[in-house]
Amino acid sequence: MKILKIEKNTIDTILNDLLKRSPNNYGAYEGAVAEILAAVKEKGDEALFAYTKQFDGAVLSGDNVEVTEEEIKKAYELVEDDLLLTMRKSMENIQVYHEKQRQYSWFDSSEKGTMLGQKVTALNSVGVYVPGGKAAYPSSVLMNIIPAKVAGVKNICMVTPPGKDGSVTPTTLVAAKEAGADHIYKVGGAQAIAALAYGTDSIPKVDKIVGPGNIYVALAKKAVYGHVSIDSIAGPSEVLVLADDSANPRYVAADLLSQAEHDELASAILVTTSMELAKQVEKEIEGFVKVLSRKEIIQKSLDNFGYLLVADSMEDAIAVTNAIASEHLEIVTRNPFEVMMKVENAGAIFLGEYSSEPLGDYFAGPNHVLPTNGTAKFFSPLSVDDFIKKSSIIYYSKEALEEVHENVEKFATAEHLTAHANSIAVRFEK
Question: Which of 63, 219, 426, 429 has the most CB atoms around its CB within 10 Å?
Answer without folding.
Answer: 219
